[in-house]
């Protein structure tokens, strides 16, 4: 995929196409940063929730140390209070690895989707350019330059379809599993939130953060998929515009021929 993306950057034909690629590349870059913040802030809160007792003892000391809190109720065959720090390090390290992997893979997927959207926009632009190049003041028919432009459009559109099929082949199963896990996590955390809503605590904060992250993630990924579908619709509209232009040109040509024949008959 990276080789295909590099090839697309090399084969741009003008500044307008370069602007389209740059625009959606920056959109993907900003999405990656924003998504990292959205994931890492709740992750950081979950990681430090283990040490909330130490933090409160430091800022608001009491006569006795506060008991340790556990964001996740997990039963271990050892004394959790005695081995609290190994337990906390193990859980925090696991959360760190999961969050880092998730941010990296989803940011890369979003960059690929933004690249697909940019290619679809370039296809629409090339179709419109081919239409403008194919007509002139004296001849309302496809010129050689317009035909060449349409051939390039078909070649690029074929590459985009292959790129999309490749992504579907590699990510269909993984995203189906991710969707199931997301729905389960959303349901479980909504249940936990309903239980802890009357008492402020770590569980309420963690459940709220997870629900917020899952909701934002699902919304934005659906937005990207809809943007891809809109790009496909734009291509269809551009091809429809070609047909309308050809019908209009044929109609105008028929009118000119009819008027010319009528004038010849009158003479």
Task: Detail the topology: elements first, then pairings.
Elements: H1 2-10, H2 15-49, H3 52-59, H4 84-134, H5 144-196, H6 202-266
Helix pairs in contact: 2-4, 2-6, 4-5, 4-6, 5-6
> How many strands, what sense, and barrel or not for the largest sheet?
none
Amino- and carboxy-terminal Cα gap: 68 Å
Structural class: mainly alpha
- Write down the overall mean pLDDT: 74
**Low-confidence residue ranges:** 253-262
Count helical runs: 6
DSSP strand count: 0
From N to C, what is the helix and strand string?
A: HHHHHH
Rg, Cα atoms, Å: 29 Å
Helix content: over 70%
Keywords: Cell membrane, Membrane, Olfaction, Receptor, Sensory transduction, Transducer, Transmembrane, Transmembrane helix
InterPro entries: 7tm6_olfct_rcpt
Pfam family, one: 7tm_6
GO biological process, one term: signal transduction
Give a written overview of the molecule.
Keywords: Cell membrane, Membrane, Olfaction, Receptor, Sensory transduction, Transducer, Transmembrane, Transmembrane helix. One of its GO terms (biological process) is signal transduction. It is found in: Cell membrane. The protein is mainly alpha-helical and 267 residues long. Helix content is 83%, strand content 0%. It contains six helices and no strands. Helix 2 (15-49) packs antiparallel against helix 4 and helix 4 runs antiparallel to helix 5 (144-196). The longest helix has 65 residues, at 202-266. It is elongated, with a radius of gyration of 29 Å. The N and C termini lie far apart (68 Å). Mean pLDDT is 74; it is low at 253-262.
